[in-house]
Amino acid sequence: MKTGKLNSHQLHHSVLRFLNEGNEHTQAKVGEDVAYYECRSKYLAFSTDPITGATKEIGSLSVIVSCNDVAAGGAIPRGILMTLLLPPQTTIEEIEEIATDAARAARELGVEILGGHTEITTAVTRPVISSTVFGTCEVIPPGVKSGDAIVLTKKIAMEATGILIREKEKELRLLSEEERREGLCLADQLSVLKEAKVAIAYGVNRMHDVTEGGLLGALSEMVFGRDIGFTVELDAVALSPVTQKIAEHFGLDVYQLISSGAMIISLEKERVEGLLEALNAQGIEANEIGQFTHKPEIQIYKSGERQHIELKEVDEIYRVMG
User: Is CATH 3.90.650.10 what the domain over 149-321 is classified as, yes or no?
Assistant: First the structure.
């Protein structure tokens, strides 16, 4: 395709036609450079995220990952703006596929795509999507406290599992068809909106979705710049055998692999049982895996023995996808 913005006909028929379906508050239009949303909540929460590592199903992934950040902040995602930067070899059919995937994910999460920008450019060699999401909330979670228990929902590295199965199909011929299906099923569980709503209603101190850097990276972010640390028992962390098999094949540390779909929740230890019951009642797997400590030290255990694990500067997936 020609470089530059999509023309009005392409934008209307191949992008906005899909994104506007089902929107209640506003619809993106050709020639409109701003979006409006009526809001009566006390707080607005904003987050922005790019999708750069994956090339398949990036429309839905962009919506889910950005909404996860807002949900983890204690807010309900409401609206999203998306910027699509696409290389010249992109076809109009591929653009329609991205828009369709994004629209489907938005409908499933109850968030409206309010507008954005779509452009063909030589500045990228593969599709790049950057999404900005806003949500609404009545209160702001107070934050992590030393002594808080660490609860983890679902399984780690589900996002990495889906990305690697889709992007490295030839290298992963060792997987059986059943294992491949199981891995892709994990990749369909990347939204944390459901557990966030449960946690907000129950009342927790902090939530953090596990993205780049994996579980250990996310926990490190939560204590960075604070006079606290954490202890974690890796045996308590839920992990799919398929994910473990893929990580071992590529020689990757599964605890430092991108893990959208898993969420860390911090709350007082005496309230953990009630939260686990509330999550399980909604069909959400969750486990207590550790505790935030008074001492600013990272303590990692496996089978009861202290582990010495080097924290990586970048996510492990880039060793394969770089």
Answer: yes
